Amino acid sequence: MNLMADILLNVTVAFFVGSILLGLQRKVMARIQMRPGPPIIQHMLHTLKFFIKETVFPRTAAMPFYVAITIILCAIWVAAVIIGPVTHGPLLLLFAIFAIHKIVEHNAGSSSGSPYGKLSCVRAVFSAAAELPLFAVLIIVFIQTGTMDLNGIIAYQAEHGALLFTLPLTAMIFIVLIISKSYYYSPLNITLARDIVSGFETEHFGTLRGFIMISEAIAWYMLLWIFLTVFLGALTPIEYLIAMVILTAIVGLINAVTPILNPNHSVMTEVTLAFIGIVGSLLMIFFL
Amino acid sequence: MDQIFYLIYVLAFVIGSIIGLVLSYKKYTEPFIRKNIDTAALVIAIIGWVLALNFALIPVIPYYISITVGVFLIAMVIGMRPGYGRYETVIGFAVAGIIWILRMVLS
User: Fold this and answer.
1) What is the domain count for chain A?
2) Any B CB within 8 A of A115 CB
3) Residue among A13, A39, A44 minimizing CB distance to B6
4) By the 8 A CB rule, do B71 and A16 touch?
5) What proportion of chain A, given as a percentage, has pLDDT over 90?
6) 3-class DSSP state for residue A112?
7) What is the pLDDT of residue B71?
8) Domain count of chain B?
9) pLDDT in tens, A134-171
10) Which residues make beta-bridge pairs with A90?
11) Could you count the other beta carbons within 10 Å of the beta carbon of residue A162?
């Protein structure tokens, strides 16, 4: 298959599967709260709906940045799909994409001029200090395997077994990162917490919101994909799908039963867990 | 090639869910209260789960077509109006699961 077809295929799969998984997360949360919940395809229907809605621009928006930031958000997660499932490129580039995502969250919040967006913008900087160390625990994977290349990590696991069992603390920290990036009522996601309406997305309407929601779906798929590839190795598409469904259900369960933390508590929780993960994993590598 | 089949299954699920949602809203005008089992949905769910999990039982049809049709039918029931289709899905999965286990034990 040529590269362009491969990219198109993987991005389409990432969008559809990510959307269905986010819908599943809402469904799981609803069932725990004794509600029927929305249909599983609700997130996808919402995304498509926004593309046929009128796009309005706030008078306070910083144009053209306000429009461009949504395209950039979409572009970086499409780039993540190219680096991940398509080319199995270096993990360091995926870390860079995650870092850019935090910057985009910050700028999307500030570009609309909305007070909720601005609060989310400040929180994006605040949370970056906590989430980047969480993502950086993947350096532990480098220390263990000697490579940052996804193909190398997969080959290492084929020979030595899944990293989930040799680096359980690192895997746990990555799960915390996944929870912090989940979209519906995450206890740790302070940039989209409900006390600031929809955070940096609050004043993006119509097509622009559609692009943001596409990015959300692809980002969710990619976070799960990175976790599964780095800690379980090469899986078949069906195994990826089953594992993603299980992870999403677990995150839905956690989000449904956990109160939303305030920014200080959220950041301190993440920093503390990142510290435990890094120190604990290093101790396990060098002394066990 | 696996990736293309994977995309086809996902698309079958999405289209099936949308059709199931639209049809069930036409069929049921009230929220899910009475908790009775819809016979038509039950038959669709059983056929769908059996096709998806036990495609090897019908060797004349290529496996990807069986799975695609199966996933489409499963999605039609799972995607029904909130509350509807749950019991039918569980029964369909249980029937297909029992057939799968019997197949594994007997082969």
Assistant:
1) 1
2) no
3) A13
4) no
5) 39
6) coil
7) 95
8) 1
9) 777 778 888 889 888 899 999 999 999 899 998 898 89
10) A149
11) 15
| Cβ A13 vs Cβ B10: under 8 Å | yes
C-beta atoms surrounding A285 within 10 Å: 14
> Phi/psi of residue A149, each to 5°?
-85, 135
Between CA A287 and CA A280 the distance in angstroms is 10
* Distance of residue A148 Cα from the nearest chain B Cα, in angstroms: 25
- Encoded tokens for A244: 């993603």
- CB contact under 8 Å between A41 and B79, yes or no, is yes
Q: What is the pTM of this model?
A: 0.92
In whole angstroms, what is the distance from residue A70 CA to residue A239 CA?
32
Query: pLDDT (tens digit, 9 = 90+) per residue, B42-78?
Result: 999 999 999 999 888 888 888 999 999 999 999 999 9
Q: Note down the domain range covering A258.
A: 3-287
The residue count of chain B comes to 107
pLDDT 10s digits, A43-67: 999 999 999 988 888 888 888 888 8
Domain residue limits at B77: 2-106
